[in-house]
Amino acid sequence: MTALLQHPGYDEERLKGVAEKLPCREVQAGMLLSLMGQPHQYSYPSIFIYGHRASGKSHVMHVLMKELELSHATVSCVECVSIALLFEQVLLSFFGCDAASLLPRSPSLSDFVRVYRQQCSQSPAKQTRYIVMEKAELLRDTDASLLSALLRLQELVEDNVTVILLSEIAWDKFRPNTGCFEPLLLHFPDYSKSELQQILSQNVHPSYSAGFYSAYINILLGVFYSVCRDLRELRHLAALNFSKFCEPLAEGKVKETDTHKLWKHIEPHLKKAMQTVYLREVSSLQWEQMQQMEEEEAGALRGLSAHTHVELPYYSKFLLIAAYLASYNPARTDKRFFLKHHGKIRKTNFLKKNEKTSNHLLGPKPFPLDRLLAIFYSVVDSRVAPTASIFSQISSLVTLQLLAQVSHDDQLDAPKYKCAVSLDFICAIARTVNFDIVKYLYDFL
Amino acid sequence: MLKLTCFPTFSHFAVDSHIIMSKRKARDAHLPVGECIKQVQQILRERFCERRLPDRLEGVEAQYKHLLELLRRTAIHGESNSVLIVGPRGAGKTTLLQCVLRDLQKEEKVQKNLLQVHLNGLLQTDDRIALKEITRQLHLENVVGDKVFGSFAENLAFLLEALKKGNRSSSCPVLFVLDEFDLFAHHKNQTLLYNLFDVSQSAQAPIAVVGVTCRLDVLELLEKRVKSRFSHRQIHLLSSLNFTQYLERVWTQLSLPDSFPDKKFAQEWNAGVKTLCEDKSVEEVLQRHFNSSKDFRSLHMLLMLCLSRVSVAKPTIKPADLLEASRMCFADTTANMLHGLSILELCLVIAMKHLNDVYEGEPFNLQMVHNEFKKFLHRKSNSMYNFEQPVVMKAFEHLQQLELIRPVDGSSAKVQREYQLMRLTLDHSQIMEALQKYPQCPTDIKQWAMSAFG
Ligand SMILES: Nc1ncnc2c1ncn2[C@@H]1O[C@H](COP(=O)(O)OP(=O)(O)OP(=O)(O)O)[C@@H](O)[C@H]1O
Ligand SMILES: Nc1ncnc2c1ncn2[C@@H]1O[C@H](COP(=O)(O)OP(=O)(O)O)[C@@H](O)[C@H]1O
Ligand SMILES: [Mg+2]
Ligand SMILES: [Mg+2]
């Protein structure tokens, strides 16, 4: 805490307020303040802050800027779809809307710097101005010189201005080929488990004791910490599952202090939440509803992703099966699988020397249409529809993204396809038409 | 007649506040420590943030003379010329030019005579924008009005002609400065460069073109017709500094000027800096920096980090400060990011490392990585990390977002996500180091990472 309180030039009361709002980030905030220096002094032209998602980068900047009332412009590179928007926001924040309106219609960097300098000579900075760029990695995708120019904006506009870039990608991946003004690098380390515990425990529910809530957070972290350290996500999960945790308490079955019983009650729920909420397969609202009607249909919980809802016509299912087989079996094994009287051939007979990797690791291979049709006719036996309707079904499978068309420039007239569904999915489809697909897959022979 | 004001080159360099201050105060004023530290911060920050021209240039006397002479000939005798200043980033190219211009401006003959146009490749990203900026800086917007020109050359000629008007028989010499010169070579047809060099060579009007660039191969970027019009004068700023000189530079960069208001404090500070530079551990650290870069900019960054640790409670720079600052400069940013991965993500990285070893750097896809990971779990009969495919997929995507893995070029968007070919952007040693630092890394995972085969 003391690191934060000794910064001459800033109001002490306000610094205290900052310290309170930034648990576990005192060191970083203190470091930043000492780099920024007193408000009227020059601050380093550009500072690059990097760290994992939700490591408090935006939060710290926001609290510092707001609490200490520093002159700043915060720009999110996601929202600024055009650089015009970016320039406008900066000028607006520093010099008011008149300044922003001085920009021509599609402004260049040159225009921006010209307007900035002109405004700045009219109202010179008495204090350092800050431009905070969120999600700075997106700057790389725009005009190549934008990033380089921002890094040395202080030199270009001749003003006491500092550009602070926030990103979750390391600086090494930003540096342009011919180099640039190197920013100061500041790392925000990920929160440790105990720090997460401390921060999350602050959101204690008013009608429960701090110890009880903290025990809950402890259990939550036990389940999720190995896959997810994102504070924002964890906070969301914590809020979502707390009422379930309190259930036995409300029913009077256990006491607040009986952590073990509470753990036993909540753990399976949290595990289930990992499958669904964490993966965003269901929305938080759905999850809450599902928890209510829980026992009745436990089975319907899983896999609510779009794929499971696809209802395919009978032949399309076989087409897809045929496509899957064509994608994952080597063409030379087709005879073995689909010729009626092939005699007994073992896998070793067509195992090539270097063929160790299974096709299910490498992914689907493209196949020509005639091969697909040959396999299709042999798996579907008897009742076959006219070929014309088969073609239209193929194209609708492509539209549904279950088949992917691979275009080869050299063979314009002979399109190739790939099957784009997973093994689980195709097995489920095959089951509905009573086709044992695994028997026909080379990898599982 | 046109009123020609020169481009305000130096307005940005902060007012010499401490000097004014010293004149106001008595000779041997004693200031409270708080005030002294404030002054120290102010002066040194201006220096390290590169907002102030140095009073004296170090180690570039020859280049300074050369450039000064060249520009003086243009300013006074109206000789046209072109020159390139070439040197690594932060070596002092811009500073050299600015100092020459500052000193040139002191000569009375030059003051009224020389016009300046400053362009920067980062800002004037095409020749249309550049021309607009030239017009503006020459204050000719009104003269041009909404005239339409047939070509760039015509337009430029008009501008230079416009400067002639009035009672002069010959036009004012104009200095064109092109910072980040190499970027202008990427403009369509190199029209601006061609025309400027053409004017400078054919003596249509007295102009000097000064290009500033960090690319040593800059001439190869020029088209033949452009290159042939360039004078081929180059001023190189390649530092031949040795370590003793480097140490001296550290000392001068950190020391306070004589004009510091509190003489006694300044003396003590400067003595403190001297002792700092003589410290063995400091010397070792500086040697490392010297070996990686000798330019001013990276030294300034190091010293800025030291300066930020100076406060009223600790009014000197201690060796520990420099060590800490150096640690920050040399921090491996990628390793820092690896530290924050979840254990699942870390396991995937290890699996990728093994795949890289086995298949000698061939790209891989998620299925292969997951399979490798499952093999490990199977061997250890470890069920703790048995995650479902979608959870693994999410972790994999996070790695991609962090750019720790990168899709192979040309592997099209049509491929299912789990089969998209990827490459690891980390090397072996980075992974191993990250593992050592990883908080509470399970031993079997460490062993798995270290084993020769997946
Ligand atoms: N000869 C010198 N003596 C003292 N200080 C110098 C000298 N040359 C440069 N410096 C200092 O080094 C810093 C960087 O110099 P400058 O900005 O001129 O580099 P540059 O070569 O233009 O870099 P870039 O290629 O990035 O534009 C400046 O702060 C300047 O004050
Ligand atoms: N030290 C902290 N104390 C309290 N809340 C924090 C802390 N760090 C982050 N948060 C919260 O976590 C969320 C994510 O932080 P944010 O700063 O947006 O992360 P990012 O690093 O991705 O910018 C925010 O809602 C913020 O309020
Ligand atoms: Mg953020
Ligand atoms: Mg420069």
UniProtKB/TrEMBL annotation, chain A:
Residues of the Origin recognition complex subunit 5 C-terminal domain: 312-441
Pfam family, one: ORC5_lid
TM region(s), chain numbering: none
Residue span(s) of domain Orc1-like AAA ATPase: 21-164
Gene3D superfamilies named in the record: 1.10.8.60, P-loop containing nucleotide triphosphate hydrolases
GO BP term (any one): DNA replication initiation
Keyword Nucleus: yes
Listed GO CC annotations: nuclear origin of replication recognition complex
This protein's UniProt keywords: ATP-binding, DNA replication, Nucleotide-binding, Nucleus
Keyword ATP-binding attributed: yes
Role description: Component of the origin recognition complex (ORC) that binds origins of replication. DNA-binding is ATP-dependent. The specific DNA sequences that define origins of replication have not been identified yet. ORC is required to assemble the pre-replication complex necessary to initiate DNA replication.
UniProt subunit comment: Component of ORC, a complex composed of at least 6 subunits: ORC1, ORC2, ORC3, ORC4, ORC5 and ORC6. ORC is regulated in a cell-cycle dependent manner. It is sequentially assembled at the exit from anaphase of mitosis and disassembled as cells enter S phase.
Name used for this protein in its record: Origin recognition complex subunit 5
The gene coding this protein: ORC5
Automatic annotation (TrEMBL), chain B:
GO molecular function: ATP binding; DNA replication origin binding
Gene3D superfamilies: P-loop containing nucleotide triphosphate hydrolases (3.40.50.300)
Main location: nucleus
Chain ranges passing through the membrane: none
Sequence ranges assigned to domain AAA+ ATPase in this UniProt record: 79-240
InterPro entries per record: AAA+_ATPase (IPR003593), AAA_16 (IPR041664), ORC4 (IPR016527), ORC4_C (IPR032705), P-loop_NTPase (IPR027417)
Function noted in UniProt: Component of the origin recognition complex (ORC) that binds origins of replication.
Protein name: Origin recognition complex subunit 4
Organism: Oreochromis niloticus (Nile tilapia)
Gene name of the record: ORC4
